[in-house]
Here is the input.
Amino acid sequence: MRKVRIGAGQGFLGDSPFPALDVVRHGEVAFLCCDALAELTLAILQKLKNRGAGGGWTPDLRTYMNLLLGECRQRNIRIITSAGGLNPRGAATEVADAARALGIRGLRVGVVEGDDISGSLDEFLQRGIPLDNLETGEPFSALSRDQILFANVYLGAGPIVEALDKGADVVITGRCADTALFLAPLIHEFGWAVNDWDRVAAGVVVGHLLECSAQSTGGNFSGDWWDVPDMHRPGYPIAEVDKDGNAVLTKAEGCGGLVTRETVAEQLIYEVHDPARYVTPDVVADFTSVRLKDLGGNRVSVTEVKGAPRPEKLKVSIGYSNGWCGEMTVRYAWPDALKKARKAEEIIRRQMALLQIKPQETVVEYLGVNSLLGPAADEPPGDLEEVGLRMAIRTKNRREAELFPRLFPPLALNGPPGLGAGSFGGNRARELIGLWSALVSREEIKPVVEILEVN
Here is the structure.
């Protein structure tokens, strides 16, 4: 039976590109899929644009293309990436520039647009299309129009399939479902009907297992992670899929990492709310139906996936200006390190009151005590050797956010003893971007696909 091999090349903005190169060189894949957008990545890209430090696409796109384009061209491997971010067309131009610099001609770059609906928000509201907050139920009117920075819909696999059908060697998308990147080549290769829910769900499961770098191959593993071999060079996951959606998850030969039923199962339930209803633009997948079998030799089979019809509405992620953050971290040494840090917090809070700094939100963490577990952390036994105090506030205006960190340096002489030399960190005020999630009917969204040829 004919099979298609798909390799994972990226799990987030800032990921290492070198495991992708191992997948290309040693994975015998037909497609390399790079998931560059986490939930908050568009906010990061928007901040870079605001500072004049980016064009809206991921800043590491050129690095990936310089490293991978030539190698993929030699092996007829097609690249699919969501690195287009807020500006897929600009990203496509970047890819074309990289190809020309590498002497590659005739490369066909597919651009998927239509996820950006920021220009349609007013029209939607005039037509009575609600964009109520999916998590809180707040009406969209709670946001002022001048707060909104971007609004992007999570697209499904359809436009990517169209780009592949049109012969794209590289497909650049903006916001789309992570799994869509990996599902699309399977629909393209096998001709699955978009309402073949079990097969489409199987493709979504494959995508979910591949989308997070080495998390299926021993990275971030909660089991015997110390036994995962060669973690300095993890092999990113590869899926070998047949026309019925049955898959075998593995990794490239010669790379580190580990593929077992346990490593794969851990990724399967990663970031899942209801495992019986994993909702994507393409299908609602039932992760409880999945059967994993360890075949040995870093191979795990993934079978029996069931799916239900796709939702009628698509998720929209709306970024909005949400005030400013002022932040500072200081560190205290033994003896009584925790007591000193708590006293420092008290001093800062009382000085904030004197200066009438009135934050909308305050976060306090004691590094080494509760910065990870929060209120679930137990009171530490004994006298700790060192403790860090991190305080952050969210304010409506920049002035208060900039003033807040300035309260901390005087603690060196005016506060508890034992403040660590050079301990001050995080003293720059920064703008905050909030995310507003909503739903919109898929009939309102019109994706556009165009093929650009590099001459």
Observations:
- The mean pLDDT is 96.
- The radius of gyration is 24 Å.
